[in-house]
Amino acid sequence: MKQRLLALSATLFCGALLFVPGITSCKATADADPDRLGPPAPRDPDGSPFTGTDGQGGTGRDGEGGAGSHGQGIVVEGDFSFTIVPVRVDVPYDDLGDVEVTIERLDGFDAPVEVDVLDAPTGLVVTRATLEPDDTTGKLSLGASGTLSIGTTFTLTLTAKAGDLTHTGSVPAVVTSKAGSLDPSFHGGIFSWTLGTDAAALYDLREARQGKILTAGFSADGLGGTRFEGARLLPDGGLDTTFATTGRVGGRFCSCTRPHEARSMIQLFDGTLVLTGSGSAGPGTTSDVGLMAFKNDGTPHTVGNDEGKALFDLGGDETVRAVALSADEHLLVTGASNERLFVTAIRPMAHKLDNAFGTNGRTFVDHTGGTAGGEALVIDGSSRVIVAGWTEANGDRDILLVRLLPSGQIDPFFGNAGRVTIARTGQQQPVGVLLQPSGHIVLLARTDEAGSADFLVLRRNANGTPDPTFGDGSAGDDGGLLLDLTGGDDDPVALVRLSDGRFVLAGNATDPLLVRLQPNGLLDPTFGTNAVQHLDLGVDDVLQSMAVTTDGKLLVAGRSEGYPFKGVIARVFN
């Protein structure tokens, strides 16, 4: 459905262009991002490639576009269309960034294509691209220098030439700081606010409608116990005071010192915002799955007399670790219940479990001879739920992948009876999982198999089998990467996929850091130093979550551990 809507919107836009003088033809395309399901999700970064006739952004053939033209030179057979992939280009100052272009070879066209910048502004550094006869994609490298200063905007026009054929396309461009540096337009680079005197965390981060930012976690003060914390920020940083007057919501399910911890803040179709995590009804009770719902203005979204709060006892002591929103607006929640991996489905508008999912709204995944828990989950295009978790037996913790059918039943066609165990030396614990458009499953985990905490990145085929083509082989027969970034403990916390297929990993060593990978899993040498960028987010800063904005920047969140504990959010050029 989402693909159809995107394609329709692109077509309507294209149709409107046909009424503009000088534009006689247009082709529009739109690609859905399979890494996210169900509006409103944290982000939709892929967008639509710029397409159109020669002389605009994108695709055209000779004779179609009102502004199109052929070049002069060798006559070649056939023709080609030309597309600039990003809808906007960030040009890093005093650095180089890539711009991806694609061509479609038509009518037997097999000549090389040279792609360059037309009428480059003063200060633009360009390394042009050559697409050889077997190539359909290529990348130019662009950078800014001199008087082409940070914040400058301009129209970037690229020309693609092959013999007597020339096609052009244009997209907006802006000069930014180098990739990995803080965005000073976001509240000066970093925004922080006091959360609690004794402890705090921001475990979830996502971009919502109108570019606003949602984050969730917990705080603790001197009275004991913890409370749900949720906040909505403005696009340029700063708490949104139109939401609950302070930009913050939260609370407890009891007047007690029992633990309370929110793990997500998600916006529903009608604007309702839902905090989901684990909490307790009071002393002597178990920890349960908890929900707090708020209207778009921050006042409680009540059902009956529940004051916008609901607890769901799954029969044990529940700890929530991750939440996702499905296309039919259900919250899928995973974690551990009495050391059993669980997934439950919540109808957030009704503040009830969906009893049609699994058995009475829940599914437990037992693992023979050990305990298990869920840590991250993602929903695929067929509404199946893929959970990355752990299983432990005799003190050895390994990675466990589970796939559930939309009904909540374990999928027998995935792995071994719906489960895949990735057994490795030492202790492993997943921290993130996502899907690629190809259906591959990419996961990030913490491992101590080399003697200290390291990043472990693995990719699995859609059926759960290993994909040894991903990464550099440092993770052994599983494929992927085993990354010792600093020589000490490197703790991963989050994983995102960019619209061009690259990945960014987030974590902590002696300070917060980001790592960027190419789509094939190899380190991206154009990012930071040897693909690693260290961040300074303040005193005793700890990174805990990450998201991608619609324009491709990174949002990172965590805490500053001085007294008092503060929530910290920054935006990073990418």
Automatic annotation (TrEMBL):
Signal sequence, start to end: 1-30
Keywords: Signal
Ranges where the record places region Disordered: 31-70
UniProt keyword Signal present: yes
Biased composition (Gly residues): 54-70
Protein name stated in the entry: Uncharacterized protein
Organism (species): Chondromyces crocatus
